[in-house]
Design brief:
- Helix 1 packs across helix 3.
- This protein folds into 2 domains: 119 residues, Alpha-Beta Complex (Aldehyde Oxidoreductase, domain 3); 148 residues, TIM Barrel, CATH 3.20.20.
- It has a 6-stranded parallel β-sheet.
- It has 11 helices and 12 strands.
- Strand 9, helix 9 and strand 10 form a beta-alpha-beta unit.
- It is 44% helix and 20% strand.
- With 278 residues, it is of the alpha/beta class.
Length: 278
């Protein structure tokens, strides 16, 4: 089932590409001509976004059918057939670029994320994303993160408390910030707080934070913080996370590693579609 937000995103994408009409296709292809397209991987990749691609074609031809040759999460080699789509030729030609844009972007994220998750295999740590997503694409990009084997942090500002440095500054301190939020939220809501020094770690544990985010700390500082916190709170590290540091950070005993680059640094993969007349 496609969420309403994604329906709106697809409609916007089609509108900006088609405008008042596809002047090339509409002048070349008869309205009743049927066609078939083969969607192909042009590089090694992890597939994500098949349902969205199908929806794009069906917005222009309700009778269009996408027969997937694999499921989201499948790892493919170059020239592998991802899916076959059939329907009115005009719809296939006009929707092609928009459908592939979704597939290429989401598969690019899943492929990118998979390369990160391989580096922390065998550790108890969870790799999580952030809110550094393409505006309007958050639900889709966070879905692609899960397809790639990582996990989601909060979806937005509405579904998780995360007290950051500017919140602390506005409240006058960590203890005051935690106390205020405790008074105004349910006891079922976890409170996460961002810290950047060991002194702040001590204050956050004393204030009763449920999750403590260690921001831009050295490995030595993180090790010291893990020893200080123990099982009092979940421990997340963030900031300056690179592939080279990932395995070393996983060994420190933290619970979560958040990486904005899972989404914002991902590059779209190469996917094409070959169309033939029926």
């Amino acid at each position: 089932m496609i969420a309403k937000q994604i329906e709106r995103l697809v409609d916007l994408a089609l509108e900006e590409d088609i405008g008042p009409g596809d002047i090339t296709t509409n002048h070349l292809v008869p309205a009743d001509q049927e066609g078939r397209g083969h969607i192909l991987a042009r590089q090694p990749l992890t597939v994500a976004g098949l349902e969205v691609a199908q929806y794009v074609f069906q917005r222009l031809d309700a009778g269009a059918r996408l027969n997937a040759h694999c499921a989201d999460g499948a790892s493919l080699e170059p020239d592998a057939i991802i899916a076959e789509v059939t329907g009115r030729m005009r719809a296939l030609l006009t929707a092609e670029r928009t459908a592939l844009n979704f597939l290429q972007r989401l598969s690019g994220i899943a492929t990118h994320v998979m390369s990160y998750t391989e580096l922390v295999k065998g550790h108890r740590v969870k790799l999580v994303d952030t809110r550094k997503t393409t505006p309007g694409w958050r639900l889709l990009e966070k879905y692609a993160v899960r397809v790639g084997g990582a996990h989601n942090h909060r979806t937005g500002l509405f579904d998780g408390v995360l007290i950051k440095d500017n919140h602390i500054a506005a409240c006058g301190g960590i203890s005051e910030a935690v106390a205020r939020i405790r008074q105004r939220t349910s006891h079922l809501v976890r409170i996460e707080i961002e810290v950047s020094t060991l002194e702040e770690v001590s204050e956050a544990t004393a204030a009763g934070a449920d999750v403590i985010m260690l921001d831009n700390m050295s490995v030595k500082q993180i090790q010291d913080a893990v020893a200080m916190i123990g099982d009092i709170a979940l421990i997340e590290v963030s900031g300056g996370i690179t592939r080279e540091r990932l395995a070393r950070l996983a060994e420190t005993g933290v619970n979560l590693i958040s990486v904005g680059g899972l989404t914002h640094a991902a590059i779209s993969v190469d996917i094409s579609m070959d169309i033939e007349s029926l």
